[in-house]
């Protein structure tokens, strides 16, 4: 289960399946950003399957002037919508430099499906190389035959800036590193570019935030008390603890996974001037007025209430099977799970006891909570362990000499340990050609979200630095 919080999505009531190659009149009006276009892609760019599928994209050209840059973004593991063209900071950048924003959907997410189902044999075409080549093919068309992509006149000399946050931030960095002749620069916010088979660094980042707020010890003690109950085989006590946390009836391990996911919401939520969401939602309950376990339960119930989660919704969140026998399209959780099983692992576990580190999530959420399901879900061809080291060697190694990438990371980012600014120092050189900006007090991908008047000063500064870089890249 992934603990990310995506940008809010705007539902598409009606999808207009336009063919931009048929619109050649330069005076054609700019379509609304809710219009969905389609771009033809092969199932496999490397010759294993030449069948064609349609990749969806949307655009906002409100501020575009001929010769202006093209900001290409992707929702990553979410469906495309005009929240990505209208509601992110890239729209503000477009306004500043007379550009446009184009949001291109990632294969197998949303309605951009190369295959008719999500079975193991279908998902074998879900490779990082195919994903990046999808975006590269789109950008080649946008630069060499813009009339095949845009329903209005666009210069083939337009610069291209790729942007994104979290996993999409990593895609932005990889696109610039792998295709420097197509992508002139990349804005990689909270880019998850370092992968581990067992990623307990994520949980420990959360602990550092709790420690700064003064409730890390209470949370760790609460987790230990919770685990003592879940491992007791005392069903009455287990039922009582689930009731205390407002949870439906689940197996102890699924309950631990659910609570871990819910508490991750607090860790991912953005901070603003004078407002720390983790303080308000979690640490404020550790005030000495109740036991640590009760404080933990109060915090979880508060998150459940704020999200408006039903018992049924929580049961689905806790379902580690992710519908083993259901191969239907539209299951983003199943696709993401495939990436973890087949690509990089990065299982978000609690620090093993032999590390000596304090736990901030239940120890029931370990490697055996995730990995055994890979072959059940996708077939016997799945590796026993994902090759995290091999993935890093290729894809993180590619970034070491790349230029024109702007990395931004929040100092309180839950995913900080997987970015270029882990807690023990920069893992890539901070240079003029690929600078790194650490946003004090910020959490995950705050700089590329919609700007607000009460944004942190560090977030505002990061945007100003990025704007100057974009102007330099497109000059």
Looking at this protein, list some descriptive labels.
alpha/beta; Rossmann fold; 9% strand; disordered N terminus; serine-type exopeptidase activity; Peptidase S28; hydrolase; Peptidase_S28
Please tell me about this protein's structure:
Belongs to the peptidase S28 family. The protein has 2 domains: 20-195 and 392-474, 3-Layer(aba) Sandwich (Rossmann fold); 201-378. It is an alpha/beta fold and 475 residues long. It is built from 17 helices and 8 strands. The two termini are 43 Å apart. The chain has helices spanning 83-86, 89-97, 120-123, 128-144, 167-178, 201-213, 216-230, 235-244, 252-268, 277-281, 292-307, 311-317, 332-344, 367-370, 373-378, 388-396, 457-474; strands at residues 37-42, 52-60, 70-73, 100-104, 160-165, 185-189, 405-410, 436-439.
